[in-house]
Amino acid sequence: MSGLSVRYGDSIAVSDVSLTFPGGAVSAVVGPNGAGKSSLLLAAYGSVASTGRVTLDGEDVSGLGAARRSGRGLALVPQGRQIFPTMTVRENIQVMADTLGLPGREVETALDRFPVLRERARALAGVLSGGEQQMLAVSRALMGSPKALLLDEMSTGLAPLIVAELMDTARRLADEGTAVVVVEPSIGAVRDRIDRGYVLLRGRASEPVGGGRALEAAYQHAMGVTVAEKPGEAVRHAVSQRNGR
Ligand SMILES: Nc1ncnc2c1ncn2[C@@H]1O[C@H](COP(=O)(O)OP(=O)(O)OP(=O)(O)O)[C@@H](O)[C@H]1O
């Protein structure tokens, strides 16, 4: 995306942001609540209005709506997952297959992506655990083999083992050439599993940073906690800031 901006009335949520998410890599965008992360992803996906340019695998998709971007190979798992709670796991997947015009075998492939989905194929999606719902949302987003997968706050509220399983899937997809983008308010859960990323603060993005640890340091620096190598000092600094000293 280049020169991407999102406005809501008079307020600017994303300001002239240019980011690249290469195929074959797991990239991250980290930033605190309200930094503009969801707005950025929704703009990339075409479901909120934006200015600037979005290019997917060399094709300018800026003029296309979300459905057509999805047809070109862009997939988004939105914050909150947006599964259909009163439909079964299989029906949630079937709906996506119907929307994309995919054959029935793709439904079976999606159910097999995570063992728990096959086991719970006839359960209502609304009774699944948070982790199972996230797996359903990811599996559904992967139908049609997207070129780029955007995951908005995937790890929120999930146990570390579940996040690890989801990140294993992200890694496998990247190894197959997909551009995977994880967007998180806190880097801890994904730090050791990402290749590169950006810090987003008040709608503005950093330069690209290579590796999870370097991104964590850049994020801490940007947030005013300066000494990533000296956790004791960083904690004292953070506590004194919180106490207003
Ligand atoms: N539909 C909307 N109308 C007006 N303002 C909005 C809308 N959506 C988001 N905003 C504002 O835009 C800014 C960025 O919000 P956004 O949700 O993109 O941030 P975020 O980094 O994803 O935050 P969080 O981690 O809390 O989800 C915030 O100030 C928010 O209040």
From TrEMBL:
Residues 1-227 form the ABC transporter domain. It comes from the Bacteria. The lineage of its organism: Bacteria, Bacillati, Actinomycetota, Actinomycetes, Streptosporangiales. It comes from Actinomadura viridis. GO terms for molecular function: ATP binding; ATP hydrolysis activity; branched-chain amino acid transmembrane transporter activity. GO terms for biological process: L-amino acid transport. PANTHER family: ABC TRANSPORTER ATP-BINDING PROTEIN, HIGH-AFFINITY BRANCHED-CHAIN AMINO ACID TRANSPORT ATP-BINDING PROTEIN LIVF. Belongs to the ABC transporter superfamily. This is Branched-chain amino acid transport system ATP-binding protein. The keyword ATP-binding applies. Keywords: Amino-acid transport, ATP-binding, Nucleotide-binding, Transport.
